[in-house]
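Morning run. Coffee first, then this:
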Amino acid sequence: MFILVDFIVLMSKNYSKLLFIIVSPLIFSYFVLAGSLIYKNNSHAQNSSSLIDYTVPNKFSLLIPPEWVPEGKLNSDSTYFSFTNYRHDLREESAPTDAIKTEVTFIEKKLDVVLQTRFQQANEYSESITKKGDLTIDGQPAVRVWYQGGGWNYPNEISSYIPYAANQTVVISSYYNDDNSDAVDTIQRIHWSFRHLKKAEIIDSKPRVHERLGF
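And here it is:
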């Protein structure tokens, strides 16, 4: 009788150890997975942070991250506007790797001329054009060009070119560093949000700029 009881107790202890050995990795895996999901959700929340409207009366409106600041005094008579999450020149070596600068420039030239001039500059500064594409911004046919390797500390550039009047082009250019993995998504959302508040004569949307320039 005592032998049977001892045997049952021994088996119970061994079963507990065996159960612990089997269950422990499962519990550990559960917490690792849960932690990973929480991290991903938090990262997504950070990358999907809301943008706020910034308006220059009688000129344009743009959505920018709430922590960004305009550089200089912005008014409707200006032709150049700049916004950044870093207050200093992006070419300074002390600038952080997550710095982004976005410029909005009103140029009194045709879109073809603006693009050709910029491509010549890219050639002079040994920049490479990594991507080009047609898109629509503010109801207008636009062109987006990706540049890389300009020799600056923040060598990456995404520029959107939007024609409005027959001789007016709005250029939205954003500059960022290779190490800033969230930059591209933020930049594209900013560019898409642009609205011209004082449209002049709108040019014909066809043919596409790429067709006219042959690329």
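The radius of gyration is 28 Å. Good start to the day.
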